[in-house]
Amino acid sequence: MALLQQLEEINCFNENQKNKCRADSVQDIDLAISTFQREVQAQIDLLNGLKLAHSIAHAVNTDGRAISEIRNGETQAENDRHLAMRMSGGDPELENPPPYREVNPGYPVQQRKSLHIAINRFGGKTAIELESDSDEGGPSRTYAERQEYGLEKLSRKEVQCCVCCDSFRPHEIVHLECGDEYCTDCVKSLFMRATKDQTLFPPRCCRRHIPLPLISTKMSTEELDTFKNVEIEFSTTDRTYCSNIQCGRFILPTNITADKAECNYCGSSTCAMCKSAFHNDDCPEDTSLKATLDLAASQGWQRCFACKAVVQLGRGCYHITCNCGAQFCYLCGLRWKTCPCQRWHEHNLMTRAEEVVDREAVDPLPEQERQRRVVQVQEDLLNTHECQHSGRFQRIDHGGRRGFQCEMCEDRHWKFILQCRRCHLRVCQDCRMHRV
Q1: What is its EC number (predicted)?
Q2: Calpha distance 198→239 (Å, rounded)
Q3: Of 43 and 351, more confident
Q4: Cα–Cα distance, 346 to 221 (Å, whole number)
Q5: In a 3-state reduction of DSSP, which class is residue 25?
């Protein structure tokens, strides 16, 4: 009101100033009054805009249910139109869009009026339709999907991160292809953990890779360089690490020339053949490596054909998946499914079946019932030894004093564990999302 009065006083002053000076001359007072008038008008426009925004927000908040009714009605009308066109064989009379359907008359008159006011203020569009005005490219959505997405976005004030379970504003949430929603800190934490744990690389959720651009803007230059270097390291088959025990960092393939690897961090030189300190003559025998391989042979351990790591079979079949991603047979070491070796050892199969039966039994089972269940689980394991763990996992709560142990990361958890319904594999939530 005060601004309107000021504007009125300015107009009165301008009327009184007419014919008091030459038309081709501009006085300082006139310039000052003109500038002041523009500032007052701009302030009035700003306040009107804020008032309109509050009014629209209030209308959308109070009439969300009515908007939902409009969406459902228009969706039904659209579906009816498509069905009618298919049944009529393309009758041109059906090309016109269906008429506008009134809001559910069961709503009070005042609610319908306020909703129509909100729609008119948007230039004839509902608040949800404004979502389609974006110029950014993206996957096509049907009209009903756009309506539903817009209504959901308007109604949600905060979104819960699926990892830390804290609530965040929508712009602080990263939406993944699998449908999970992460806060930026949890996505960044996953990427940085993947630089130290190859089983987490590449970062993924529900078996779908998470693109680096989703979080790269939240990472420092040093963190981004670290991730990109690790990406090269984990994709390199024959890796060379600095022979300096005080360093031990990965040496990029571009820094290896004629079997001589130069470390950019400490300046040491490493032989790319034997991985020891660089030498000009033939590679000497590595006594430590020979002792390790002799021990592995005596214990029946196997060596990965890709990264040369020594692997010990703890449970299950002879199908081994190394941390580097290579899959091979535990008996002969060849690439998986390229050898005639058997898939199971009877003793290992029996041990695994007994383990599953005993841990799932609430109370000690009678011996006859226990043996029956062991045989049944043995058959399940034989049929699902290459289980892809598809479908929903079973959640098991209350682990007692000992809790549950994840069979992938081997960490203990006391609240709950997830179990595959087909092969009985037990994993924690973190491994279910990022390792399985």
Answers
A1: 2.3.2.31
A2: 14
A3: 351
A4: 53
A5: coil
CB 246 within 8 A of CB 269: no
Residues 254/266, Cβ–Cβ less than 8 Å: no
- Which residues does 317 contact at the CB level (< 8 Å), separation at least 6? 343, 344, 348, 349, 381, 385
Query: Cα Rg for the chain, rounded, in angstroms?
Result: 35
Separation of alpha carbons 321 and 435, rounded Å: 12
Q: Give residue for tokens 């228009």.
A: 74
Instruction: Assign 291 to helix, strand or coil.
Output: helix
Decide if pLDDT at 424 tops 50.
yes
Placement of tokens 């301008």 in the chain: 14
Residue 100 and residue 121: Cα distance in Å, rounded? Answer: 18
The structural domains of the chain, with segments of one domain joined by +, span 156-235, 237-280, 390-435
Q: Which two tokens stand for residue 157?
A: 């004030």
Structure token pair of residue 282: 């033939």
* Helical (H) or strand (E) element with 40: helix 28-62
Band (pLDDT 50/70/90 cuts) for residue 88 is low
Each as own residue / partner, the long-range contacts of residues 39-43 (CB below 8 Å, 24 or more positions apart, any chain) are: 40/3, 40/6, 40/7, 40/10, 41/7, 43/3
Class of domain 156-235 as given by CATH: alpha beta
- Backbone torsions φ then ψ of 228, nearest 5 degrees: -65, -35
pLDDT in tens, 380-417: 888 887 788 877 789 999 877 888 999 989 899 988 99
Q: Which helix (H) or strand (E) holds 160?
A: strand 159-160
> What SS3 state is found at 75?
helix
Cβ atoms of 391 and 421 closer than 8 Å: yes
Measured in Å, how far apart are the chain's first and last C-alpha atoms?
Answer: 65
* Torsion from C-alpha of 113, 116, 118, 120, nearest 10 degrees: -130
Give the global pTM: 0.57
Place of tokens 């680096």: 212
